[in-house]
Write a structure and sequence with these properties.
single chain; about 250 residues; alpha/beta; Rossmann fold; 2 domains; ten-stranded mixed sheet; about 30% helix; about 25% strand; globular
């Protein structure tokens, strides 16, 4: 009869082989990306301003897929100016109820990180999205660890949405790179579902480097793997709208 410890070790090796095979499929664009866990800090990087709407769409999709609502969305004034105000119809088209979203615009990166830490401590929230453009001054291992500890204590999904900034070391459980992908046209050449090219840059305790091309499925509230072509759904309004001073707090609807 096999010794218990030997059996356990053999089962662990078998599980590792299964995991490696699955990761290999994911890396080849098969399957769906892993869901973002609640009670964790995650980073979503749109490496260029042109990818900002895709970064926002992926972040919202992760929140909806994880049923992590209501949502506190924090933005800097720079994000509001450069990216435009959040596009309510685009968010609704993804399946988000505007009553479950509060948007707060803060002065700068320091205020963004403070507000994100306060929000991440609030167990009444499902998720906090903190959106910053550029370098995001003050974001380091200490600041990110503070966000992670707050999320772990409250159960909130904490997402740092970064547009155009350099990747820096952090305590995030996962780090994603997001870029827009063409979507499938629907009947009568109507625009298709939002589509994204994803790369998992970091996964704490697991392999990274996997890539996916996915589209958002509003009906199932999940990302589906798909080869796609066609236009994309905007999640930000015309930047000209952002020329007016933002209200400090408002709902999106």
């Amino acid at each position: 009869m096999e010794e218990p410890f030997a059996l356990i070790d053999r089962l662990r090796r078998a599980a590792a082989l299964v995991e490696q095979a699955r990761d290999g499929e994911e890396g080849n664009g098969k399957g769906a990306p892993p869901r973002l866990a609640r009670a964790q800090l995650h980073e979503v990087h749109a490496l260029s301003q042109e990818s900002a709407a895709s970064g926002a769409g992926f972040a919202i999709g992760c929140v909806l897929a994880g049923a992590a609502r209501p949502i506190l969305w924090l933005r800097t004034e720079a994000a509001e100016r450069q990216g435009g105000r959040l596009h309510g119809p685009g968010l609704i088209a993804m399946g988000l109820d505007p009553a479950e979203l509060v948007v707060v615009v803060v002065a700068d990166d320091a205020a963004l990180l403070r507000a994100a830490a306060d929000g991440a401590r609030c167990p009444g929230l499902g998720s906090v999205i903190a959106e910053g453009w550029g370098a995001m001054r003050g974001l380091d291992l200490t600041a990110s660890r503070r966000l992670m500890l707050a999320a772990e204590a409250s159960g909130v999904m904490m997402i740092l949405l970064r547009v155009g900034g350099q990747v820096v070391p952090s305590a995030a459980a996962t780090r994603w790179s997001v870029a827009p992908a063409p979507s499938r046209a629907l009947a009568a050449d109507a625009p298709g579902a939002p589509a994204y090219d994803l790369e998992l840059l970091r996964r704490r305790g697991g392999p990274a480097g996997a890539r996916w091309r996915v589209e958002w499925n509003r009906d199932t509230q999940s990302f589906d793997p798909a080869p796609l072509s066609g236009p994309r759904l905007p999640l930000v309004a015309d930047r000209a709208v952002a020329g007016t001073p933002p209200a400090p707090v408002r709902g999106a609807g």
